[in-house]
Write a structure and sequence with these properties.
With 240 residues, this protein is of the alpha/beta class. It is 37% helix and 10% strand. The protein starts with 13 loop residues before the first helix and ends in a 49-residue tail after the last helix. It binds iron/sulfur cluster (SF4).
Length: 240
């Protein structure tokens, strides 16, 4: 269900977005996070998958700098037990409330409607039901969305800027780690002793739902996602 707000904010003009990118492109991610908290107050949300390492960097920065940014966790119902355990452990570790969002269609209802193992037959449809639609609903109350995507993750993410207008969601999309490398992410986790998903140390360099995630080489981490198909994105970050 969407909340009662029926209108979306007007798109930010290109020149304003360019000004922000010029200001924050070479700056540490906490500066963009701080600006977002100051500008949007409680109308900005950080999505954390509790699978990837970059999201844990952002979560740590938000808590470390005491920023009043909402933390949203999309629970598809098909995540690894380690992912659920990390979400609970992080809430305790940081003393925060995590907004857990689930699809409107339960797994049982999905199976009744579309048959078993939709993820194996039509993963795009499954991702739409279990990820894309719940994200759209979760972001509806917010005016800005922070995520941990980085340019070096996939070809589709190669042009990610720290600040972009999302036509799809009608909000400002912020990617404070857009220019970070995998090495920088892990250096941060190590030096700040940030909790992360243990499967990342067990041959799963990229983590999503359990049925669609397999071990992969560190040099091609996305190869473990939807193995055997051309799909590389769940759709959350496709199209602005
Ligand atoms: S990643 Fe797989 S199981 Fe998860 S929503 Fe997409 S298709 Fe379904």
């Amino acid at each position: 269900m969407l909340d009662s707000r029926s209108t979306r904010p007007a798109p930010w003009p290109d020149h304003a977005i360019q000004t922000l990118n010029t200001r924050f492109r070479e700056r540490p991610p906490e500066e963009l996070l701080g600006w977002a908290a100051e500008h949007f107050g409680r109308q900005v949300a950080l999505t954390v998958s509790f699978g990837g390492a970059a999201g844990m960097v952002l979560l740590d920065l938000v808590v470390r700098h005491k920023l009043p940014i909402a933390v949203v966790f999309l629970d598809t119902g098909l995540l690894f037990p380690e992912t659920y355990a990390l979400a609970e452990a992080a809430a305790r570790h940081y003393g925060i409330t995590i907004e857990r969002r689930q699809p409107g269609l339960s797994l049982e209802a999905q199976e009744c409607q579309y048959g078993p193992a939709l993820y194996a037959r039509d993963p795009d449809h499954c991702c739409t039901i279990r990820k894309v639609t719940p994200l759209r609903e979760a972001l509806h109350p917010y005016e800005a969305w922070i995520s941990g995507i980085r340019r070096d993750q996939t070809a589709q993410r190669a042009t990610t800027e720290p600040v972009q207008w999302s036509v799809k969601h009608g909000l400002l999309k912020l990617s404070p780690l857009a220019a970070w490398s995998e090495r920088e992410v892990w250096a941060y986790l190590s030096s700040h002793q940030v909790p992360y998903n243990p499967l990342l140390d067990q041959g799963y360099p990229s983590l999503g739902c359990a049925p669609c995630t397999h071990p992969a080489g560190a040099d091609a981490p996305r190869d473990g996602r939807w193995s055997g198909s051309a799909k590389t994105e769940c759709g959350l970050h496709l199209e602005l």
